[in-house]
UniProtKB/TrEMBL annotation:
It comes from the Bacteria. GO terms for cellular component: cytosol. PROSITE patterns: HTH_CROC1. Keywords: DNA-binding, Transcription, Transcription regulation. One of its GO terms (molecular function) is DNA-binding transcription factor activity. This is DUF2083 domain-containing protein. It comes from Phenylobacterium montanum. Residues 13-67 form the HTH cro/C1-type domain. Pfam families: HTH_31 (PF13560), Peptidase_M78 (PF06114), ScfRs (PF09856). Belongs to the short-chain fatty acyl-CoA assimilation regulator (ScfR) family. SMART domains: HTH_XRE.
Length: 472
């Protein structure tokens, strides 16, 4: 009796072949079998024996466990996540059925995931157009806003791109971590790294000089920023196909919107090279999401680390879902990522009661805060200022504030809540999304009346709040 145990894994083999960029004929030639046999294997009409697994591993220099692993696990986790959407709440969808679809019909699973992602993207676009219309501006204004397009692209995917994470992790391992980035640029691409003063760089932080085969860096950048720029250049050089694939199913009305989304993906990939998903996720749990400790462990900046924490939603390996926002002293939002269901203000100013807007008074000090929205939702946030620029006397600096937060049910996993006792009983600051949407009539920080409320005259009485409202 043969000791080989046959297994059927046609969809996994098909995906592997496509990932390698091979036709059935080319794979058949590599494995010294017939193209028709490859076709039978992919259709699960023939088993994939241990001998064939070994041949695949040797031919394509891959780990056998990687080839034989559960190819449907990722689709299963993603599909199960999608089916948790409230729109499916009235449908009985056992997890086992999703697993069956993902394993047996990966093409159908991928099609469903693409349709759902497109739906979420259009849903966000519709919400933006509605908000614009209520604000009195053109309904089409945001549809051609490149920043809005890029934000919708990221939000619809919860700022999580597993394929990019996996490719970046492989690149990081091949390079030998952060210390090997310079050697990787030299050995694989023939570029040496030079650091030049700002006056020579003439406004550039990084420049690829193909004529002289050099990657030029502004020498006034701190170590974390220089390392990030090297990882960013590697991402553009080696992960272009993965970024193109991620952008392929995006919906962009302008070239600028797509370019901004590509820039966001490149930064995502750079962070994934410096903070590989598996290692970073383990460290985040072990250190209870201590941003400063993680930043030191991975030789990254506070902002880079906080940003990376928002991406830990790989299907089947999810960690605490965070939201992230960055503002300047005038309240302008320059970065906004939501993986925690926080209802950011899409138009108008945010709530001044949020500590995010007050940390400029205490530079580089972490300020924690519990937040409660008018509908009762509770969130926990940390806020701190970060500095860009500088690096030399007289060099311009930009101070911004960033906030990182999560829903109340996850707050107990963060180091910032230790010693607070019963977290359900901790007093929260009542905030609103924006004054026009907040119905808290007695808020003394209000700057505008809420939509739909009639302002009372103050001929005979003036309340402490800026506006008085009728009950109807």
């Amino acid at each position: 009796m043969s000791s080989q145990r046959p297994v059927f894994m046609g969809p996994r083999l098909r995906r592997l072949r496509r990932d390698l960029g091979l036709t059935q004929t080319a794979m058949a030639a590599d494995l010294e079998i017939s193209p028709s046999y490859v076709a039978l294997l992919e259709r699960n009409q023939r088993p994939l024996t241990a001998d064939m697994l070994l041949r695949l591993a040797r031919t394509y220099k891959m780990d056998m466990a990687e080839i034989a692993g559960d190819g449907g696990a990722e689709y299963t986790a993603r599909l199960q996540g999608v089916l948790k959407d409230p729109m499916f709440a009235d449908i009985d969808l056992p997890p086992l059925e999703a697993a069956d679809v993902a394993a047996s019909y990966p093409g159908v699973a991928e099609a469903l995931l693409r349709v759902y992602t497109a739906y979420k993207e259009e849903q966000l676009a519709l919400a933006d157009r509605g908000a614009e219309a209520r604000a009195g501006s053109s309904p089409d204004a945001d549809s051609t806003d490149p920043v809005g397009e890029a934000r919708r692209f990221l939000a619809a995917r919860r700022n999580c791109f597993p394929a990019l994470d996996e490719a970046a992790e492989r690149l990081s391992q091949q390079a030998g971590g952060q210390a090997g980035l310079i050697e990787r640029l030299k050995a694989r691409h023939g570029f040496r790294v030079r650091r030049l003063p700002p006056e020579v760089m003439v406004g550039s932080l990084r420049r690829l000089d193909r004529h002289h085969d050099e990657v030029l860096l502004d020498d006034s950048l701190d170590t974390a920023s220089q390392t990030f720029q090297l990882a960013l250049q590697l991402a553009y050089l080696e992960l272009r196909d993965e970024m193109d694939l991620a952008l392929k199913d995006g919906s962009f009305a302008s070239d600028s919107g797509e370019r901004l989304a590509r820039r966001a993906l490149a930064s995502y990939a750079a962070a994934a090279i410096l903070m590989p998903y598996a290692a970073f996720a383990r460290a985040a749990e072990a250190r209870r999401y201590d941003v400063e400790a993680l930043a030191r462990q991975f030789s990254a900046s506070f902002e880079q680390t906080a940003h990376r924490l928002t991406t830990l939603q790989k299907p089947g390996q999810e960690r605490v879902p965070f939201f992230f926002i960055r503002v300047d002293p005038a309240g302008n939002v320059s970065k906004r990522l939501d993986g925690a269901g926080f209802p950011f203000a899409r138009h108008g100013g945010a709530c001044p009661l949020w500590s995010l807007h007050n940390v400029f008074k205490t530079p580089r000090e972490i300020v924690t805060q519990w937040l409660e929205l008018p509908d009762g939702q509770r969130f926990f946030s940390i806020a701190r200022t970060v500095t860009a620029g500088g690096g030399a006397y007289g060099a311009p600096r930009v101070e911004r504030a960033i906030a990182l937060g999560c829903a109340a049910e996850h707050a107990g996993r963060l180091i910032y809540t230790q010693g607070q006792g019963d977290l359900a009983q901790v007093e929260a600051t009542p905030i609103g999304v924006t004054c026009r949407l907040c119905q808290r009539a007695r808020c003394t920080a209000r700057s505008a009346p809420p939509i739909g409320r009639q302002v009372l005259p103050d001929d005979y009485s003036r309340a402490m709040a800026p506006f008085g409202f009728s009950d109807s």
